[in-house]
Amino acid sequence: MNWRVFAAMVCVVVCLPFGTAAGEDAAVAQGRKIARDACSPCHAIGATGVSAKAEAPPFRELGRKYPVESLEEALAEGVVVGHPEMPQVKMSEPEIAAFIAWLKTIQTP
Ligand code: HEC
Predict the structure, then answer these.
(1) 80: pLDDT confidence band, cut at 50, 70 and 90?
(2) Cys-Cys crosslink for 58: which of 14, 36, 44, 95, Cβ 3.0 to 4.6 Å?
(3) What distance in angstroms lies between residue 59's CA and the mean position of ligand 1's atoms?
(4) Minimum-distance ligand 1 atom for the alpha carbon of 34
C-alpha cells in the first residue's frame, strides 16, 4: 500500500473521534510543552529514552499502572505523589487537559 493512502487511513481512524483535529493538535502541543518545561528535568517525556532522574517513571509507561485520565484530579489538586523529591505542580484546568491529551499520545502498552 502506498504510504500516502496509509497515512490518510490512519488519520481517519485517529482524527475523526476527536472532532476538530486542529483543536486537538493544539492541546497536544501545549501539553508537550508543559511536560518539557516542568517535568523533563526528571522524567523521560519521549517515546524512547530514560528519565534524567532514575526513580522518576518515564511518562510513556504511566498508562501501564493506571488510566492516565486518573491523574487529572491529582494534578488539579497540585499533588501527584507524596514523594519528597517530586515537587508540587500547580496547573490550570486547560493546562491539565492539554497535558493529559498529550500524555495519551505517548503511552506504550
Ligand atoms: C525534581 C524531579 C521531578 C520533577 C521536575 C517532576 N517529577 Fe514526577 N516524579 C519524580 C520522582 C522522583 C518520582 C517517583 C516518586 C515515587 O516513586 O515515589 C515521580 C513520579 C511521578 C509520577 C508517578 C506517580 C505514581 O504514583 O505513579 C507522576 C504521574 C509524575 N511524577 C508526574 C509529574 C509531572 C506531571 C511533572 C511535571 C509537571 C513532574 N512529575 C515533574 C520527580 C520529578
Answers:
(1) low
(2) 44
(3) 9
(4) 38
